[in-house]
Specification:
Layout lengths: L8 E5 L3 H13 L3 E5 L2 H8 L6 E5 L7 H9 L6 E5 L4 H9 L4 E4 L4 H16 L10 E3 L2 E4 L4 E4 L2 E2 L4 H12 L7 H9 L7 H17 L6 E4 L3 E4 L6
Parallel strand pairs: 1-2, 1-3, 3-4, 4-5
Antiparallel strand pairs: 6-7, 7-8, 8-9, 10-11
Length: 236
């Protein structure tokens, strides 16, 4: 979906009405349309209609928390997600990224910082992620259709998060090149975004495991001391 980062539809999902009010005022002053939801189930229902350009999603909601909302949403849509969390906990952040979150802000937050992060996410979403393409990518029996968010091995579907899809697309677009961690970070998150090696390694580990479960155990090769590249992805 192409959008103007200054005129987008933002869905706020948070059980705290004061937080929603602060976000609503800041976002509308910045030129965005705003929709609100007070719990995870309501937020998921509103996100599923596909009208939101970005979802601001609180992690720590009762009943259905933000991580579960993101997990369910990612099975259907690629709408960008910015997590809000009251806990400065790396486990939450890593898990959020693994589920397909695009960024996070820790409460209490500066509205100015949050707006800057939202603009950055929307700007990345408006263009092409480095290494991403709308065309089909093939490597042996592995096929990737980034435009439709589809991955198959021997015509069997492989369910990937947005981060895993972006990483695989970068590797498959340059199958014989070795990608460094810095290049993969730029491909998955965009330039000038700091992400720990632990987070990137987590995405890579999950991607390898999913491809191996599908029968593609040699999809990604490690070139020690340099980086990673695509394997042959052959059957058997």
């Amino acid at each position: 979906m192409l959008m103007d980062p200054k005129m987008s539809h933002i869905l706020i999902v948070d059980d705290d009405p004061q937080i929603r009010e602060v976000l609503r005022i800041a976002l509308r002053q910045d030129g965005h349309d705003v929709t609100e939801a007070g719990d995870g189930a309501e937020g998921l229902a509103k996100a599923r209609n596909g009208k939101a350009d970005l979802v601001v999603l609180d992690i720590g909601m009762p009943e259905m928390d933000g991580l579960e909302v993101c997990r369910r949403l990612r099975s259907e849509h690629n709408t960008p997600v910015l997590f809000l969390t009251a806990r400065d906990d790396e486990i939450d952040r890593v898990l959020g990224f693994e589920l397909g979150g695009d960024d996070y802000v820790t409460k209490p937050f500066s509205p100015r910082e949050l707006l800057a992060r939202i603009r950055a996410i929307l700007k990345r979403s408006a263009g092409q992620v480095p290494g991403m393409t709308d065309g089909m990518l093939n490597r042996g029996a592995l096929k990737l259709d980034p435009g439709r968010h589809l991955c198959t091995f021997e015509d069997r579907p492989v369910s990937l998060t947005k981060r895993e899809m972006d990483m695989l697309a970068h590797l498959m677009a340059r199958p014989d090149h070795v990608a460094t961690k810095a290049q993969l970070t730029d491909a998955v998150y965009g330039p000038a975004i700091h992400v720990s090696d632990r987070t990137l390694d987590s995405h890579l580990r999950n991607l390898r495991a999913k491809l191996a479960d599908a029968g593609c155990e040699t999809a990604i090769e490690t070139v020690h001391g340099v980086g990673i590249r695509m394997g042959a992805c052959q059957v058997g």
